[in-house]
Design goal:
Layout lengths: L17 H22 L5 H24 L5 H27 L7 H9 L1 H14 L9 H28 L3 E2 L4 E2 L1 E2 L6 E2 L6 H15 L9 E8 L7 E12 L5 E14 L1 H10 L12
Antiparallel strand pairs: 1-2, 3-5, 4-5, 5-6, 6-7
Helix pairs in contact: 1-2, 1-3, 2-3, 2-6, 3-4, 3-6, 4-5, 7-8
Length: 289
């Protein structure tokens, strides 16, 4: 039976600080995003692009926070993601509402008042949602409200969900108190013919999987992801992902992935077997038909 890595659930001496650590840079990102909505000229889709960029930065902050405080407790990690999303949303609205009435000039005094009085901030948001603002001239109030609702959903719920996903993908070595790193030099391999790769791994181990995946890695193929402790080199995990490559009418490649199994515990010998099996294997080219 496959044994999978499971986080210990330990919070660590600094784990409870994760929500605070995540909230501070998230608030800065949110504030910049809020000001960008005012300062950017042109159509609304630019604001959507900036929101996407801000969310990607938030994801980076969440991943860094989990590792910075050595948090191995999923609930605390998710709480940090939620705190970061709320902080970004609140900071964006504070900067936005304290700037919307003054053109493009930010009013720090008004921002501090809104920060100290959340009720006033909520009232300001409701007033803007009811009457609109400068850029609403070319868009209906309904569209604006839907956009702001999607923004809140992305920052509040998205931050929480993505942080949980990031946490599930990481591996921590309790012996060395450090995070495992991706192992380089493990190549993609072809899908086994008429066999379930997870079942092969379960019943025959890594050797059976390697024996069944010989040859060039033409699509669809298996992506092997190995994580190892960089200190003791005794903790190793293996994840398998099925990758499909299709081509559109113009010949452009479209890649889709499906996770088959995550973070199965393997041995150092298994890692050596994977590395040895890759010697002499040509690199995979996703553009191949």
């Amino acid at each position: 039976m496959l044994k999978r890595y499971k986080a210990s659930g330990k919070i660590g001496p600094y784990g409870l600080l994760a929500p605070v650590v995540a909230a501070i840079p998230s608030a800065l990102i949110g504030g910049l995003y809020g000001y960008a909505q005012i300062a950017l000229p042109g159509p609304w889709f630019l604001c959507a692009v900036v929101l996407l960029v801000a969310f990607l930065l938030l994801i980076t902050v969440m991943g860094w926070t989990i590792k910075a405080v050595n948090c191995r407790n999923r609930r605390v990690a998710v709480a940090a993601g939620f705190a970061g999303g709320v902080a970004a949303w609140g900071a964006a609205w504070i900067v936005f509402t304290s700037t919307a009435g003054t053109g493009r000039r930010w009013d720090p005094a008004a921002a501090l008042v809104l920060l100290a009085d959340p009720v006033r901030l909520v009232r300001a948001i409701i007033a803007l949602a009811a009457g609109g603002w400068a850029k609403t001239a070319d868009h209906s109030l309904i569209t604006m409200r839907l956009a702001w609702g999607a923004e809140a959903l992305l920052l509040w719920a998205g931050g929480r969900a993505v942080t949980g996903t990031l946490f599930d993908g990481e591996v921590f070595c309790e012996l060395c108190e450090t995070w495992a790193r991706l192992k380089k030099g493990i190549s993609d391999r072809p899908m086994p013919d008429d066999k379930d790769p997870v079942a092969l791994l379960d019943h025959g181990g890594v050797r059976a999987l390697v024996d069944a995946t010989q040859g060039p890695a033409d699509p669809p193929y298996l992506r092997f992801t190995v994580r190892s402790c960089p200190v003791c080199n005794q903790l190793h995990t293996l994840s398998l992902t099925r990758v499909r490559v299709t081509h559109d009418r113009n010949g452009s490649a479209n890649t889709t992935t499906h996770d088959l199994v995550d973070n199965v515990l393997i041995t150092s010998c298994d890692v050596g077997l994977l590395a040895a099996a890759d010697q002499g294997q040509p690199p995979h080219m996703e553009s191949a038909a």
